[in-house]
C-alpha cells in the first residue's frame, strides 16, 4: 500500500469531517464502524455495543475539531469507543472476563502425546489462497459462525489485530490488556479457526 | 529441546515475528525436522489469512444506515442552530 497516498486520503477525509461534510461522514462511518464495533464488543453485549458506537459517531461531529492527528484517525476513533464502552461497563459494575492462563486450545492440546509429539497431527495441508477459500460460500458461512461463537475478547483482539491492522501496542491500549495477554487472545482465537478450517477440509461440514 | 506441543504454544508468536532470537532459531530447527509442525504452521498461517480476507469485507448495511441517519440528523440540527430537523 502506498502510505503517502493513504495519508493524504485520510487528511482529506479529516478535513471533510471537520467541516461537517455529510458525505465525508458517510464515508468514514462505512470505513470505520466495523472496527469500532469490534472494540465495543470486547466490553459490551451486542446491543449495548451498537448503541455505544452510534453515540460515538454523534460525539465525533464535535470532537473531531480537537483531533490533532497525533495518532491515525482509526486509532483515535477506537480509543473514543473504548473509553465510552469502559464507562458503560463501570456504570453497570461489570468487568471483562477472559481466560489468559492457557495458550493452547484444549481441543488442540488433546492431540499431543504425553511426550509432547503429535498424536493426531494435522492431516491436510491447506494449499489454496485465502481468496480462493473464501469463494467457497459454505466455508465462508462456517467461518462466520465460528467467529461469532468465539469469546468476545478473542474475537475483538483478532478483528483489531488482523482485520483492522492495528499494531499490538495500539490493540493493548484500546482493549486495556497486557502484551502477553493479547498474545494469548490472538493465539486462542486463531487455533479455533484453524480447527474449524481443518474439520471443514476433511469432512466438507461445518 | 523444543517439542511439537511447545511449538504449538508459541506458533502465533513465530508467525507474527514476536519471538526472541533464541526461540526463533529453536522453532526453525524443529521445523526443518518435523513435517507435521510445518503443516501446522502453514495451516495456522492460512487460517490467519482467511480471518483477514473474511473480516475486512464485513459491513452491516442496516447498522451503517442507522448511524448515517443519526449523524445526518445531528449535522442538520447543528447547522440550523436550533435543532429543528423537520
From TrEMBL, chain A:
<dbReference type="GO" id="GO:0003677">
    <property type="term" value="F:DNA binding"/>
</dbReference>
<protein>
    <submittedName>
        <fullName>RNA polymerase sigma factor</fullName>
    </submittedName>
</protein>
<feature type="domain" description="RNA polymerase sigma factor 70 region 4 type 2">
    <location>
        <begin position="141"/>
        <end position="193"/>
    </location>
</feature>
<dbReference type="InterPro" id="IPR036388">
    <property type="entry name" value="WH-like_DNA-bd_sf"/>
</dbReference>
<dbReference type="GO" id="GO:0006352">
    <property type="term" value="P:DNA-templated transcription initiation"/>
</dbReference>
<dbReference type="InterPro" id="IPR013324">
    <property type="entry name" value="RNA_pol_sigma_r3/r4-like"/>
</dbReference>
<dbReference type="InterPro" id="IPR007627">
    <property type="entry name" value="RNA_pol_sigma70_r2"/>
</dbReference>
<dbReference type="Pfam" id="PF04542">
    <property type="entry name" value="Sigma70_r2"/>
</dbReference>
<feature type="domain" description="RNA polymerase sigma-70 region 2">
    <location>
        <begin position="29"/>
        <end position="94"/>
    </location>
</feature>
<keyword id="KW-0805">Transcription regulation</keyword>
<dbReference type="InterPro" id="IPR039425">
    <property type="entry name" value="RNA_pol_sigma-70-like"/>
</dbReference>
<dbReference type="InterPro" id="IPR014284">
    <property type="entry name" value="RNA_pol_sigma-70_dom"/>
</dbReference>
<keyword id="KW-0731">Sigma factor</keyword>
<comment type="similarity">
    <text>Belongs to the sigma-70 factor family. ECF subfamily.</text>
</comment>
<dbReference type="Pfam" id="PF08281">
    <property type="entry name" value="Sigma70_r4_2"/>
</dbReference>
<dbReference type="InterPro" id="IPR013325">
    <property type="entry name" value="RNA_pol_sigma_r2"/>
</dbReference>
<dbReference type="GO" id="GO:0016987">
    <property type="term" value="F:sigma factor activity"/>
</dbReference>
<keyword id="KW-0804">Transcription</keyword>
<dbReference type="InterPro" id="IPR013249">
    <property type="entry name" value="RNA_pol_sigma70_r4_t2"/>
</dbReference>
TrEMBL record, chain B:
<dbReference type="Pfam" id="PF13490">
    <property type="entry name" value="zf-HC2"/>
</dbReference>
<protein>
    <submittedName>
        <fullName>Zf-HC2 domain-containing protein</fullName>
    </submittedName>
</protein>
<feature type="domain" description="Putative zinc-finger">
    <location>
        <begin position="4"/>
        <end position="38"/>
    </location>
</feature>
<dbReference type="InterPro" id="IPR027383">
    <property type="entry name" value="Znf_put"/>
</dbReference>
<dbReference type="InterPro" id="IPR041916">
    <property type="entry name" value="Anti_sigma_zinc_sf"/>
</dbReference>
Amino acid at each position: 500500500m502506498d502510505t503517502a497516498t493513504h495519508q493524504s486520503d485520510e487528511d482529506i477525509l479529516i478535513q471533510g469531517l471537520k467541516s461537517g461534510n455529510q458525505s465525508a461522514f458517510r464515508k468514514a462511518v462505512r470505513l470505520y464502524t466495523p472496527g469500532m464495533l469490534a472494540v465495543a464488543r470486547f466490553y459490551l453485549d451486542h446491543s449495548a455495543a451498537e448503541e455505544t458506537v452510534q453515540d460515538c459517531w454523534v460525539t465525533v461531529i464535535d470532537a473531531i475539531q480537537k483531533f490533532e492527528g497525533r495518532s491515525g484517525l482509526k486509532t483515535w476513533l477506537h480509543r473514543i469507543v473504548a473509553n465510552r464502552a469502559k464507562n458503560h461497563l463501570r456504570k453497570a459494575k461489570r468487568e471483562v472476563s477472559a481466560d489468559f492462563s492457557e495458550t493452547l486450545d484444549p481441543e488442540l492440546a488433546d492431540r499431543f502425546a504425553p511426550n509432547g509429539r503429535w498424536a493426531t497431527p494435522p492431516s491436510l495441508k491447506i494449499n489454496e489462497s485465502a481468496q480462493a477459500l473464501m469463494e467457497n460460500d459454505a466455508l465462508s458461512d462456517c467461518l462466520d459462525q465460528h467467529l461469532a461463537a468465539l469469546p468476545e475478547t478473542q474475537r475483538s483482539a483478532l478483528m483489531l489485530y488482523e482485520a483492522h491492522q492495528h499494531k499490538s501496542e495500539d490493540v493493548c491500549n484500546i482493549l486495556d490488556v497486557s502484551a502477553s495477554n493479547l498474545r494469548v487472545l490472538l493465539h486462542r482465537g486463531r487455533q479455533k479457526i484453524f480447527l474449524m478450517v481443518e474439520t471443514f477440509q476433511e469432512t466438507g461440514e461445518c | 529441546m523444543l517439542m511439537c506441543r511447545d511449538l504449538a504454544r508459541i506458533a502465533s508468536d513465530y508467525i507474527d515475528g514476536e519471538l526472541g532470537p533464541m526461540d526463533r532459531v529453536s522453532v526453525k530447527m524443529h521445523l526443518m525436522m518435523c513435517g507435521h509442525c510445518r503443516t501446522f504452521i502453514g495451516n495456522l498461517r492460512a487460517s490467519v489469512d482467511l480471518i483477514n480476507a473474511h473480516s475486512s469485507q464485513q459491513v452491516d448495511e442496516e447498522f451503517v444506515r442507522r448511524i448515517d441517519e443519526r449523524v445526518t440528523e445531528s449535522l442538520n440540527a447543528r447547522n440550523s442552530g436550533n435543532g429543528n430537523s423537520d
